[in-house]
Design goal:
By secondary structure, the protein is α/β, with parallel strands linked by helices. The chain contains 10 helices and 11 strands. The protein has a 6-stranded mixed beta sheet with strand order 5-6-8-9-10-7, with helices on both faces. A 5-stranded mixed beta sheet has the order 1-4-3-2-11. The termini are far apart.
């Protein structure tokens, strides 16, 4: 067994979630560090924030793999006056490389939407658009009770838009901020849509057309993908004869650093 380098981990991710499939607006890929840096320990997270960097330092992490990129737009300076730039500088200071797998992961077989659907116990899950899947929940459940089911599984107090007494069986899932998925959900004759964030005009249109929306939180609806990605990386590393430890972040993304 040998120690992988950053490029090896990039190739593992690219194998299941090709970076070339990312959306035009996105900035997924190898963002910070040295491709040839040896990697003994990896930390997976949704966002690179100060609390995550602290966790990485405490665990002697060489590489962070985040879902959301730490930067989307070009920058003309790197100073601590800017929040995103201060994150970049902190990673460089502690020799921690960064790979982000965003919309390429969202379109993969281990997408947050797929993983959330599986966690919620949906059956016969199939994609209905680029970022969404739809499955069935047993014989169905009224929307109010299914909201409680979502809140329990995702550890987040969700919000219901629409009829609380509606029987929901065919359920679409579009994790993260994807309330525009109402159109794919309606076209697929879903009873309900689970997403992370809901825009007001989407809620109005959906409820007028009797589509229930469950707002499950941006991060809670994406987190189920992290343990699945971790398992994939562990298994692939073993197949490729690499010795590397994979950690999943345990910190609250919104934790304040003094």
């Amino acid at each position: 067994m040998q120690t992988p380098i950053v490029q090896n981990i990039y190739e593992m991710i690219d194998q299941i979630a090709p970076f070339e499939t990312q959306a035009e607006f996105d900035n997924a890929g190898f963002l910070i560090g040295d491709r040839n840096q040896p990697v003994e320990r990896i930390l997976l997270c949704l966002d690179v924030v100060p609390a995550v960097i602290r966790e990485a330092k405490e665990n002697n992490v060489d590489l962070i793999v985040s879902h959301h990129p730490v930067m989307f737009n070009g920058t003309k300076s790197l100073t601590t006056d800017n929040f995103e730039n201060s994150i970049i500088l902190e990673l460089i200071r502690h020799n921690i490389s960064l790979i982000s797998a965003h919309t390429n992961l969202d379109q993969s077989v281990i997408s947050p939407s797929n993983c959330t659907a599986e966690l919620l116990g949906l059956q016969n899950v199939e994609p209905i658009d680029q970022y969404m899947v739809m499955g069935e929940y047993n014989e169905g459940m009224n929307a109010s009770d299914f909201l409680n089911h979502i809140s329990e599984k995702l550890n987040f107090l969700g919000i219901l838009y629409g009829r609380a007494d509606k029987l929901v069986k065919k359920i679409a899932v579009g994790s993260g901020g994807y309330s525009e998925g109402i159109h794919s959900a309606l076209h697929s004759e879903a009873d309900a849509l689970i997403t992370g964030e809901v825009k007001h005009h989407h809620a109005l249109e959906a409820t007028a057309k009797d589509l229930v929306i469950f707002e499950a939180g941006h991060l809670p609806s994406e987190y189920p993908a992290l343990p699945v990605l971790a398992d994939y990386l562990r298994n692939t590393a073993k197949e490729w004869s690499f010795n590397v430890e994979i950690l999943v972040s345990k910190v609250d993304t919104y934790d304040k650093i003094p």
